Amino acid sequence: MSHNNFYITTPIYYPSGEPHMGHAYSSILADVFARFKRNDNFKVYFLTGTDEHGLKIQKAAEKNNYAPLDYCNKISKIFKDLANKINLSNDDFIRTTESRHHKSVIDIWNRLVKSGDIYLSKYKGWYSVSDEAYYNADEIIEKDGKKFSAFSGSSVEWVEEDSFFFKLSSWEKKLLEFYDINKKFILPVSRRNEVINFVKSGLKDLSVSRTSFTWGIKVPGNNKHIIYVWLDALTNYLSALNYPNINDELYKNFWPASLHVIGKDILRFHAIYWPAFLLAAKIDPPVRIFSHGWILSGDKKMSKSKGNILNPIEVIDTYGIDELRYYLMKEVPHGSDGSISLKSLENCINSDLANNYGNLCQRIFSFIKNNCSNVVSKTKNISTSDKKLIEQTEKITKDLRNIMDEQNLNNYIKSVINISFLTNKYINDEEPWKLKKTNIEKMNNILHISLEQIAKIYILINTIITNKTTKVLDALNLNKKSRNFSFLDGKKIFDDKIQISELDILFKKIS
Ligand code: ME8
Hints:
The protein is 46% helix and 17% strand. It is of the alpha/beta class. Strands 3-2-1-14-15-9 form a six-stranded parallel beta sheet, sandwiched between helices. The structure holds ligand ME8. Ligand ME8 is lined by residues 11-14, 22-23, 25-26, 51, 233-234, 236, 262-263, 265-266, 294-295, 301-303. The site of ligand ME8 has 21 residues, from β1, α1, α7 and β14.
């Protein structure tokens, strides 16, 4: 894969119930990284989709009186519609019930058999259908006579059945070596440490087939066994690139994946099982697993089973998608959990969107309209305070690529807020309105520099606020080709006079 290609994925979602804010968060986060790389002239492939096999889905379909595939068709479409509604810029939407995925899973299975990493035995232990995960006895807690996973809190059941196993134990040392060589394979560092400690405490072989239900991909040559849904699901990242056709342009251009964005609850699968499967199958593991925290409501994970859901569609219809995207990205701290509420969403809209970004634009646009007939000539002489603003902005922007290469979106947002703050202060200090009669050239310089700043701010933030930033860049008459990050390398956005167009109020304050 070339250095200028970037393959990024969201988790593929279980279509077992309707999507909620946690799903929207995970997807928007990945979307922001995808858009950042596109703005930075990378060739990006961005994948999302649905994870449709396994007992969890079979049970959800039965409960709703549907055949599994009919149920998946129905719910998968709801996830696809949500992707549109939240402005995901995904290039593909994969469903694990598609034949392209089936081929890919069979190939991986055959490779693992060929490498001697799979053997037949019997599984005896705990299983959580909700997590589709096996748990050791020391990971189980008992409450009111019922057993739960101490890790996720989901209920577990005792399973005893014939099963194929993957020799995960034999990959322990190689995984630790892999983490050691690839120091940034797992971010944030706290999650990396968690994974390394877990692997060091010893890995058991992993059951990779089930025989007590039918909804899934059958083990080749053995009709009784269904391939474990996580081995099936993880392979989606390869299937979307037309693996096993390794001569396919997509595979050649985009594997290994640059970044899998996932929640902390599915870290083990991505940071331990996935690289182990791939190393065993002699396929390069992905470059980065970034694990985000949970969206909480109060202090609880937002999820259907807890009944504390903020419905993303309702919030978008009331407040707008730009507003929700910005709020979620700002409010949830890097790699940690974040508690959200409508009250803090409203505060964020008022303080950041209306007062900071919106006000900066509106005051400059209306001044230029009223005093300069919508045209500002090119800056001629740079004053000390112009220079100061330009240098302060450069100092902030020069770190942005590194910040985003570590998925530190909070610092990115802080940087953009800071540029907006500095620009507002510059305008207040320079008082262009006082120069109309005395120094029209200086007034023009200040306005030109302010518009250049506005363009930078809105290009940076259009990774998050996708609709209203376009309105501003259109009103600046900035051609589409120039809406990229070349200014991060010191290039100017406007080399000439700037003609502006009408700009409506961007963000309405909520009272
Ligand atoms: O785990 N806050 O699917 P899923 C933040 N099919 N993120 C949340 C969340 C919350 N309240 N609730 C869920 C699966 N998520 C598998 C993935 S990938 C090969 C297979 C996140 O629908 C969760 O952390 O249960 C996970 O990353 C994603 O939503 C999908 O959850």
